[in-house]
Design a protein that fits this description.
alpha/beta, binds 5'-O-[hydroxy(phenylacetyl)phosphoryl]adenosine
Length: 443
């Protein structure tokens, strides 16, 4: 791995180190302001508070947040497009939207001040991984209604780094830019970076020999095994940035050089972990659904937003010295899960299992089918130079190793298919790992 220069503390990061008592004080006063604002300006929120007999002034301590109603994705859909806005349109300077997989998109709005908070949040995440004004940052997240491109762009720019707004796609040109412009930091989805790394190799370019040293990867679940693989093939440090349209795009939290979870920017976003079935708040360390409250977002305050992302809060202080708390790496969403013959399966479990087999690359797809009422999992794994062989016996042995590894983790049989090179579609944004054909084949 390349040597990263020693990190100097950027003044923008000061809030990352705020003493806990001061942080809690700040969080409470911001929470009170947010609740008051949402109550006064957002009908749905006021109705729900009134139904509970709650008034903004009842929020006297941070623990009182538990009295407040949750907000869910459907609330954004039901009030489409502008129903949750707390600011008049003349104060809104940007709209983003996320299409999701089903139904209407959700729309999110920003005032000028909100954009400033978002840029600061993204910049603090980047500063956390050592990006500074000397860096050249390539943004290969898509620009548009998706928040990835413009969010990462604002972060680099706020730090004074040189930003290259490459957007996603045109992979050979991405590599030309990386090389010719001496890019030192890249922001994109981990699956797209894999595609970039693979394409670079095909072009005879070794990423390990370029100045590129840091990746700021997010927007999709990815495993520690995938991170290790990326670091190995590219020689960079692969960091994890988290965010979601409903809260802000990239910038809710990020991993630091300790790479032990993601620090949440707690002065902007208040995290809780709940039991997704009961809604009960869980103690630190226990895994559950992440719930976030925006503490500094004026156009569209989100109170106790249920993210569906599964993680846990890490209370122990981080060796990096930051006082803001961490969450564990998000490798799954509650709605990613599929149930096969009574067993709960997450795509990330399959990713970990296949990547733990030597020579296997993270180019895979999971296909769910239903035959005579029985669900089957097919895992397609692409052959690569290290696995390819003229001998059928070698291929069979490789397939067996991979399927055993998956079966050990899941406890159910899967049908493993080795695919010829370059047959599984590569991603330029969020990877589509699961193809569910069960409804189609049910009849
Ligand atoms: O993906 C915002 C973003 C852009 C984050 C670029 C990071 C980098 P959405 O399209 O609304 O927003 O999708 C949000 O993506 O609820 C998670 O399930 C997933 N996600 C985002 N970052 C991570 C991450 C953007 N680092 C949804 N690890 C979230 C795991 C992530 N999952």
């Amino acid at each position: 791995m390349k040597n990263n220069p020693p990190m100097e503390m950027n003044p923008i990061s000061a809030m990352d180190f705020l003493p806990r008592a001061e942080m809690r004080k700040l969080q409470l006063s911001r929470l009170q302001t947010m609740v008051r604002r949402a109550y006064d300006h957002v009908n749905l929120f006021r109705q729900r508070m009134d139904e509970r007999g709650l008034r903004p002034e009842h929020i006297q301590s941070l623990e009182d947040i538990r009295l407040l109603p949750f907000t869910v994705k459907n609330d954004l859909r039901d009030t489409y497009p502008f129903g949750l806005m707390a600011s008049p349109m003349k104060e809104i300077v940007r709209l983003h939207a996320s299409s999701g997989t089903t139904g209407k998109p959700i729309v999110v709005a920003y005032t000028r001040e909100d954009l400033e908070v978002w840029a600061t949040a993204a910049a603090r995440c980047m500063a956390m991984v050592g990006v500074n004004s000397s860096d050249i940052g390539q943004v290969s997240y898509g620009y548009g209604l998706f928040t990835g491109g413009l969010g990462a762009h604002a972060g680099f720019e706020k730090l004074g780094a040189t930003v290259i707004p490459a957007s996603g796609g045109n992979t050979e040109r991405q590599i030309m830019l990386l090389k010719d412009f001496g890019v030192t930091a890249i922001a994109c989805t981990p699956s797209y970076f894999l595609h970039i790394a693979e394409t670079a190799q095909n072009m005879g370019i070794d990423l390990r020999e370029l100045p590129l040293r840091v990746g700021i990867f997010g927007a999709e679940p990815w495993t520690v095994e995938m991170r290790d693989h990326i670091e190995k093939v590219s020689g960079i440090r692969a960091y994890d940035i988290y965010g979601l349209s409903e809260i802000v795009g990239p910038g809710v939290g990020c991993s630091c050089p300790e790479q032990a979870g993601l620090h949440i920017l707690e002065d902007f976003f208040y995290p809780e972990i709940i039991d997704p079935a009961t809604g009960e708040v869980l103690p630190d360390g226990e895994e559950g659904e992440l719930v976030l409250t925006t503490l500094s977002k004026f156009a569209m305050p989100m109170i106790r937003y249920r993210t569906r992302d599964i993680t846990s809060l890490i209370a122990e202080p981080c060796a990096c010295g930051r006082t803001i708390r961490r969450i564990s790496k998000i490798s799954r969403r509650s709605d990613d899960m599929f149930i096969i013959r009574g067993v709960n399966v997450f795509p990330s479990q399959i990713e970990s299992a296949i990547l733990s087999v030597e020579s296997v690359l993270p180019v895979y797809q999971i296909i769910l089918t239903r035959e005579h009422g029985l669900d089957n999992v097919e895992v397609d794994v692409e052959l690569n130079q290290n696995l390819i062989s003229d001998k059928v016996a070698d291929l069979e042995a490789a397939a067996k190793r991979i399927s055993h590894s998956i079966e050990r983790v899941l406890g159910i049989r899967v049908f493993l298919k080795l695919m010829p090179p370059n047959t599984i579609p590569r991603s330029e944004g969020k990877a589509k790992r699961v193809i569910d054909k069960r409804n189609l084949s049910e009849i």
